[in-house]
Amino acid sequence: MAKRTDAETLSKHIRDELRTNMLSGRWAPGDRLQLNQISEQFSTSSTVVREALTRLAGERLVVLRPNRGFFVPTLSLDELRDITELRCVNEQFGVTLAIERGDLAWEGELMAAHHTMERTPSRDAENRLTAEWAAAHQAFHAQLLAACGIPVLIDLTNTLSDLAQLYNCWATSATNWTGRDLKAEHQAILDAALARDAETTSSLLADHYRGTLEAIARLGVEVGLPASA
Questions:
Q1: Are 185 and 84 in contact (CB under 8 A)?
Q2: Nearest to 224 by CA among 170, 176, 178, 164
Q3: Cross-strand bridge partners of residue 64
Protein backbone atom coordinates (compact mmCIF):
# COMPACT_ATOMS: atom_id res chain seq x y z
CA MET A 1 0.00 0.00 0.00
CA ALA A 2 2.84 2.39 0.87
CA LYS A 3 4.54 1.77 -2.47
CA ARG A 4 1.30 2.41 -4.31
CA THR A 5 0.80 5.65 -2.39
CA ASP A 6 4.36 6.76 -3.18
CA ALA A 7 3.82 6.01 -6.89
CA GLU A 8 0.57 7.98 -6.93
CA THR A 9 2.24 10.89 -5.15
CA LEU A 10 5.10 10.89 -7.67
CA SER A 11 2.71 10.72 -10.60
CA LYS A 12 0.66 13.63 -9.25
CA HIS A 13 3.82 15.68 -8.62
CA ILE A 14 5.01 15.16 -12.20
CA ARG A 15 1.55 15.88 -13.57
CA ASP A 16 1.37 19.12 -11.60
CA GLU A 17 4.85 20.15 -12.77
CA LEU A 18 4.03 19.37 -16.41
CA ARG A 19 0.76 21.28 -16.10
CA THR A 20 2.64 24.31 -14.73
CA ASN A 21 5.19 24.07 -17.54
CA MET A 22 2.41 23.82 -20.11
CA LEU A 23 0.48 26.79 -18.76
CA SER A 24 3.61 28.93 -18.52
CA GLY A 25 4.38 28.39 -22.21
CA ARG A 26 7.51 26.24 -21.88
CA TRP A 27 6.56 24.40 -25.06
CA ALA A 28 5.22 25.89 -28.27
CA PRO A 29 1.89 24.89 -29.85
CA GLY A 30 2.22 21.59 -31.68
CA ASP A 31 5.52 20.56 -30.02
CA ARG A 32 6.04 16.86 -29.47
CA LEU A 33 6.59 15.94 -25.83
CA GLN A 34 9.59 13.62 -25.64
CA LEU A 35 9.11 10.93 -23.00
CA ASN A 36 12.84 10.26 -22.62
CA GLN A 37 13.70 13.92 -22.07
CA ILE A 38 10.91 14.43 -19.55
CA SER A 39 11.85 11.20 -17.76
CA GLU A 40 15.44 12.41 -17.43
CA GLN A 41 14.23 15.80 -16.20
CA PHE A 42 12.29 14.21 -13.35
CA SER A 43 14.66 11.26 -12.83
CA THR A 44 11.84 8.77 -13.21
CA SER A 45 10.61 6.13 -15.63
CA SER A 46 8.86 6.78 -18.92
CA THR A 47 5.91 4.78 -17.54
CA VAL A 48 5.30 7.36 -14.82
CA VAL A 49 5.64 10.22 -17.31
CA ARG A 50 3.29 8.48 -19.75
CA GLU A 51 0.68 8.13 -17.01
CA ALA A 52 0.97 11.83 -16.14
CA LEU A 53 0.68 12.87 -19.80
CA THR A 54 -2.31 10.58 -20.30
CA ARG A 55 -4.06 12.30 -17.40
CA LEU A 56 -3.29 15.69 -18.91
CA ALA A 57 -4.63 14.47 -22.25
CA GLY A 58 -7.90 13.75 -20.45
CA GLU A 59 -7.90 17.41 -19.39
CA ARG A 60 -7.15 18.46 -23.00
CA LEU A 61 -3.87 20.11 -22.03
CA VAL A 62 -2.03 17.45 -24.03
CA VAL A 63 -2.96 15.76 -27.31
CA LEU A 64 -2.41 11.99 -27.62
CA ARG A 65 -1.99 10.85 -31.21
CA PRO A 66 -2.08 7.05 -31.65
CA ASN A 67 1.27 5.59 -32.73
CA ARG A 68 2.82 9.06 -32.69
CA GLY A 69 2.94 10.12 -29.06
CA PHE A 70 2.02 13.16 -26.99
CA PHE A 71 1.88 16.70 -28.33
CA VAL A 72 1.17 20.23 -27.13
CA PRO A 73 -2.25 21.37 -28.43
CA THR A 74 -2.32 23.65 -31.46
CA LEU A 75 -4.08 27.01 -31.53
CA SER A 76 -7.45 27.78 -33.07
CA LEU A 77 -9.46 30.96 -32.83
CA ASP A 78 -12.64 28.98 -33.40
CA GLU A 79 -11.82 26.81 -30.40
CA LEU A 80 -11.00 29.87 -28.30
CA ARG A 81 -14.36 31.38 -29.20
CA ASP A 82 -16.09 28.18 -28.10
CA ILE A 83 -14.10 28.07 -24.86
CA THR A 84 -14.93 31.70 -24.15
CA GLU A 85 -18.66 31.27 -24.67
CA LEU A 86 -18.70 28.12 -22.54
CA ARG A 87 -16.86 29.98 -19.78
CA CYS A 88 -19.33 32.85 -19.93
CA VAL A 89 -22.39 30.60 -19.70
CA ASN A 90 -21.03 28.33 -16.98
CA GLU A 91 -19.38 30.98 -14.84
CA GLN A 92 -22.30 33.38 -15.02
CA PHE A 93 -24.50 30.59 -13.66
CA GLY A 94 -21.89 29.53 -11.11
CA VAL A 95 -21.14 32.99 -9.77
CA THR A 96 -24.86 33.70 -9.37
CA LEU A 97 -25.15 30.64 -7.14
CA ALA A 98 -21.94 31.50 -5.30
CA ILE A 99 -23.17 35.00 -4.49
CA GLU A 100 -26.45 33.52 -3.24
CA ARG A 101 -24.80 30.79 -1.15
CA GLY A 102 -21.43 32.29 -0.19
CA ASP A 103 -20.79 33.21 3.45
CA LEU A 104 -18.37 35.64 5.09
CA ALA A 105 -15.55 33.10 4.85
CA TRP A 106 -16.07 33.00 1.07
CA GLU A 107 -15.91 36.80 0.92
CA GLY A 108 -12.67 36.81 2.92
CA GLU A 109 -11.05 34.18 0.73
CA LEU A 110 -12.15 36.06 -2.38
CA MET A 111 -10.57 39.27 -1.13
CA ALA A 112 -7.40 37.37 -0.21
CA ALA A 113 -7.21 35.80 -3.68
CA HIS A 114 -7.64 39.23 -5.27
CA HIS A 115 -4.94 40.72 -3.02
CA THR A 116 -2.49 37.95 -3.95
CA MET A 117 -3.16 38.47 -7.65
CA GLU A 118 -2.69 42.22 -7.39
CA ARG A 119 0.60 41.89 -5.49
CA THR A 120 2.08 39.26 -7.83
CA PRO A 121 4.25 40.54 -10.73
CA SER A 122 2.49 39.72 -14.00
CA ARG A 123 5.44 40.07 -16.40
CA ASP A 124 9.01 38.82 -16.39
CA ALA A 125 12.09 40.53 -17.85
CA GLU A 126 11.14 39.29 -21.34
CA ASN A 127 7.57 40.61 -21.05
CA ARG A 128 6.08 37.13 -20.75
CA LEU A 129 3.28 36.31 -18.34
CA THR A 130 4.72 34.88 -15.15
CA ALA A 131 3.58 31.46 -13.97
CA GLU A 132 2.97 32.94 -10.51
CA TRP A 133 0.59 35.61 -11.77
CA ALA A 134 -1.19 33.16 -14.06
CA ALA A 135 -1.78 30.87 -11.08
CA ALA A 136 -2.96 33.76 -8.90
CA HIS A 137 -5.27 34.97 -11.67
CA GLN A 138 -6.84 31.56 -12.06
CA ALA A 139 -7.18 31.24 -8.27
CA PHE A 140 -9.11 34.51 -8.09
CA HIS A 141 -11.55 33.44 -10.78
CA ALA A 142 -11.89 30.00 -9.21
CA GLN A 143 -12.68 31.55 -5.84
CA LEU A 144 -15.51 33.55 -7.39
CA LEU A 145 -17.31 30.26 -8.03
CA ALA A 146 -16.07 28.32 -4.99
CA ALA A 147 -19.30 28.71 -3.02
CA CYS A 148 -21.64 27.63 -5.82
CA GLY A 149 -21.86 24.13 -4.36
CA ILE A 150 -21.68 22.22 -7.68
CA PRO A 151 -18.43 20.23 -7.98
CA VAL A 152 -19.09 19.21 -11.60
CA LEU A 153 -19.49 22.85 -12.61
CA ILE A 154 -16.30 23.80 -10.77
CA ASP A 155 -14.35 21.00 -12.49
CA LEU A 156 -15.62 22.10 -15.90
CA THR A 157 -14.77 25.75 -15.33
CA ASN A 158 -11.28 24.79 -14.11
CA THR A 159 -10.70 22.82 -17.32
CA LEU A 160 -11.93 25.70 -19.48
CA SER A 161 -9.75 28.10 -17.49
CA ASP A 162 -6.67 25.96 -18.18
CA LEU A 163 -7.44 25.85 -21.90
CA ALA A 164 -7.90 29.62 -22.01
CA GLN A 165 -4.63 30.07 -20.12
CA LEU A 166 -2.78 28.21 -22.90
CA TYR A 167 -3.80 30.97 -25.28
CA ASN A 168 -2.89 33.69 -22.80
CA CYS A 169 0.64 32.42 -22.23
CA TRP A 170 1.31 31.87 -25.93
CA ALA A 171 -0.20 35.15 -27.13
CA THR A 172 2.42 37.43 -25.58
CA SER A 173 1.65 40.45 -27.75
CA ALA A 174 -2.11 40.06 -27.44
CA THR A 175 -1.90 39.85 -23.67
CA ASN A 176 -0.26 43.24 -23.42
CA TRP A 177 -3.94 44.23 -23.27
CA THR A 178 -3.52 47.48 -25.16
CA GLY A 179 -6.34 49.79 -24.14
CA ARG A 180 -7.44 47.56 -21.24
CA ASP A 181 -7.07 48.09 -17.53
CA LEU A 182 -7.06 44.57 -16.11
CA LYS A 183 -6.66 45.77 -12.54
CA ALA A 184 -9.77 47.89 -12.89
CA GLU A 185 -11.69 45.00 -14.47
CA HIS A 186 -10.79 42.64 -11.63
CA GLN A 187 -11.56 45.27 -9.01
CA ALA A 188 -14.98 45.89 -10.53
CA ILE A 189 -15.73 42.15 -10.55
CA LEU A 190 -14.65 41.87 -6.92
CA ASP A 191 -16.70 44.89 -5.84
CA ALA A 192 -19.83 43.60 -7.56
CA ALA A 193 -19.44 40.14 -6.00
CA LEU A 194 -18.94 41.57 -2.51
CA ALA A 195 -21.98 43.80 -3.04
CA ARG A 196 -23.91 40.59 -3.80
CA ASP A 197 -24.91 41.98 -7.18
CA ALA A 198 -25.10 38.78 -9.25
CA GLU A 199 -26.35 40.46 -12.42
CA THR A 200 -23.49 42.99 -12.55
CA THR A 201 -20.87 40.39 -11.59
CA SER A 202 -22.07 38.04 -14.33
CA SER A 203 -22.03 40.82 -16.92
CA LEU A 204 -18.55 41.98 -15.93
CA LEU A 205 -17.20 38.42 -16.08
CA ALA A 206 -18.55 37.94 -19.59
CA ASP A 207 -17.10 41.27 -20.72
CA HIS A 208 -13.76 40.33 -19.15
CA TYR A 209 -13.52 37.00 -20.99
CA ARG A 210 -14.79 38.36 -24.29
CA GLY A 211 -12.29 41.21 -24.03
CA THR A 212 -9.51 38.65 -23.81
CA LEU A 213 -10.87 36.83 -26.85
CA GLU A 214 -11.03 40.10 -28.80
CA ALA A 215 -7.44 41.02 -27.85
CA ILE A 216 -6.08 37.67 -29.00
CA ALA A 217 -8.23 37.62 -32.15
CA ARG A 218 -6.92 41.04 -33.21
CA LEU A 219 -3.37 39.71 -33.17
CA GLY A 220 -4.19 36.16 -34.27
CA VAL A 221 -1.70 36.02 -37.12
CA GLU A 222 1.09 37.37 -34.93
CA VAL A 223 0.63 34.68 -32.28
CA GLY A 224 0.36 31.85 -34.75
CA LEU A 225 -3.39 31.46 -35.11
CA PRO A 226 -4.92 30.66 -38.50
CA ALA A 227 -5.47 33.90 -40.41
CA SER A 228 -8.82 32.67 -41.72
CA ALA A 229 -10.18 31.81 -38.27
A1: no
A2: 170
A3: 70
Tell whether the torsion through CA atoms of 188, 192, 193 and 195 is positive or negative.
positive
87-124 confidence digits (pLDDT tens): 999 999 999 999 999 999 999 999 999 999 999 998 88
Give yes or no for a contact between 114 and 146, defined as CB atoms under 8 angstroms apart: no
Residues comprising the chain, all counted: 229
Give the contacts of 185 (CB within 8 A, at least 6 positions apart): 204, 207, 208, 211
Q: Give the Cα separation of 147 and 161 in Å (integer).
A: 17
**Residue 30 and residue 62: Cα distance in Å, rounded?**
10
Report residues of the chain scoring pLDDT below 70.
Answer: 1-7, 171-179, 220-229
Whether this model's pTM surpasses 0.85? no
